[in-house]
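Per-record layout

source: Cytobacillus dafuensis
name: GMC family oxidoreductase
length: 570
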Amino acid sequence: MARTLEKVDVVTVGVGWTGGIVAAECTKAGLKVVGLERGQERGTADFLHVHDEYRYAIRYELMQNVAKETVTFQNTRKMKALPMRQMGSFLLGEGLGGAGTHWNGWTYRFLPYDFEIKTLTEKKYGKNKVPKDYLLQDWGLTYDDLEPYYDKFEKTAGISGENKNPYGGKRSSEYPTPPMVKTPILERFEKATQKMGMKPYMLPAATISTTYTNPDGSKINGCQYCGYCERFGCEYGAKASPEVTVVPTALKTGNYDLRFNANVVEILKQGNKVTGVKYIDTLSLEEIIQPADVVVLTSYVLNNAKLLMVSKIGEQYDPDTGRGTLGKNYCYQLNAGSTGFFDEQMNVFMGAGALGMTLDDWNGDNFDHSDVNFIHGSGIWITQSGNRPIAKNPVTPDVPSWGPEFKKASIYNFTRTLYVGGQGATMPHKENYMSLDDTYKDAYGLPLLRLTYNFTEQDRNLFKFSNDKTEEIMKEMGAKTVVPENVIEEYDIVPYQSTHNTGGTIMGVDRDTSVVNTYLQHWDADNLFVVGAGNFNHNSGYNPTGTVGALAYRCADGIIKYSKSGGSLV
């Protein structure tokens, strides 16, 4: 029988960026908050041996154990979904900080177009620009509505950047720290793209350029450019992550109880209210009930949706009828790009996860889509993130993939190759969604989440367009040989592509077309909030974390308002 604990004001499920932000803001407002994290405690001191590439980048030390909890995958409903038993297309974080510990730190704001994509697309191109099978919809708020929260997140994380993007929305203030160092490699990209008429700017970075103390008093150190960011925790405390920013803020209030090895298996509900959550202590296997006035789902996209499904909260999306919203609008991202092989050596083994330049000339609706058969676009970028010896073995297509010739070529090319990428937006399609698997279960007896997903015609067209742009840029940069990415056909859950999963718990102003309102408050239970990239109605040409952070601050505002007056916030 489950043991019931004393009721608290707020319980969060997951302690990454969203859980940390909600905890920090609510505890500062005087609310008692419990943070439940199914992974372990960790922090800067635990990452002193972080340069072990095999341990962290290949064997995924900081990631979720997919033997216990994973997803099943199928391209279409006619296929048999099978479990992902090794990390593949995306990397699911676990432990204090979640994916915010092992991220690279690219911190964009979405374009104003993103938030009103349906209205603005139809206004400019007509209602027939997007086929009816694409489930395009506005978010219910505008860029201007979210701008103060973007500003707050950037100041909390100390984001390093420059306000030189001519396509971005208006900013209420400058970036809190200067951009990272502009290296010769970035200057080569800048010179080439400017010559081509494009407008590059330094990539906004959470691997910050200088020591910084944020408004809550948390200190973030300046980056050392060691090149071990993505898939690693930062040994210097120089990468803005939850465990060095918002979690300490919550803890120092005295109103925060942080619990580890606490795997939530059910949201408890009576009538039109939730009453708390049930979790399992993964060390003792004891079942525990944590009552709360407010429950906030702050775990990863996939787990937030799964918990709502197993708890039977909300109506599951049905692709046959179009009814239901839970699991709807699952989106991924496209990864176009070109590798350039050069004669001269370059310092590619040092850098940082977000040391780069980027441009938005081919992103959003920043170019005329009248004569192309897709909408939205790709952010085009180059990074100097630090090539590592196990994962990076660049050779041209004419070189064998093994043997003496491969070894010689990969060693020669290690410091003579660059990559220009195109991160493409994906639009929601009626056949791409999340549901519960009817065969496979996790270690606690719950059904696994099932992904039904494939690239669409929109994706393939955008990919080719973006691939061509990266190839043109790489040629202008002077590469002697340019190798673009292979054309995409069917999506496969291996190899790694991007951890930028979105949708499934989408936001809006209409309960018939969304799971939560614009404060991320659930339509079916006004004391339940769900926050994360699952709220995105479509994916963008950007990394999601900046927008996730902004939504978390808006959600925290909503929770505090609800704690005072109750009821629906919209």
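summary: DSSP finds twelve helices and 20 strands in the chain. Residues 3-563 form a domain with the FAD/NAD(P)-binding domain fold (CATH 3.50.50.60).
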